[in-house]
Amino acid sequence: MNLFGERLKELRSDNKLSRKEVSEKLGVSVRLISYWENGERECDFKTLISIADLFSTSVDYLLGRTDY
After folding, report:
1. pLDDT value at residue 7
2. pLDDT band at 41 (very low <50, low <70, confident <90, very high)
3. pLDDT of residue 5
4. 7, 19, 37, 57: which has the fewest C-beta neighbours closer than 10 Å?
5. Which of 56-60's residues contact partners 24+ apart within 8 Å by CB, and which partners?
6. Closest CA to 17 of 54, 58, 43
7. Structure-derived torsion over alpha carbons of residues 44, 46, 49, 53, reported in degrees to the nearest 10
8. What mean pLDDT do residues 39-59 have?
């Protein structure tokens, strides 16, 4: 189960952002966003925090520890 990837994809979609737009905001490649969403790779802690900040959510939500 790749809850992080599912939630990242959901947040990106809800905010009407393309993978390219998210990659530019985070300073990573579009391919890496795809890997994360598909559960093929994991991001580092610093990037995880940046993703949470970008979508105004918590790291706990991204990791599946909470549902909000």
Report:
1. 98
2. very high
3. 97
4. 57
5. 57/11
6. 54
7. -130
8. 97
Count, residues in the chain: 68
Q: How far, in Å, CA of 20 to CA of 60, rounded?
A: 25
CB atoms near residue 39 (< 10 Å): 13
What's the helix, strand, coil split of the chain in %, to 5?
Answer: 65, 0, 35
Q: What integer best gives the mean pLDDT of the chain?
A: 97
Spell out a b/e string for 1-28, using b for 16 or more CB atoms within 10 Å of the CB, else e: eeebbebbbebbeeeebebeebbeebeb
Please check whether residue 62 is in contact with residue 5, taking contact to mean a CB–CB distance below 8 angstroms.
no
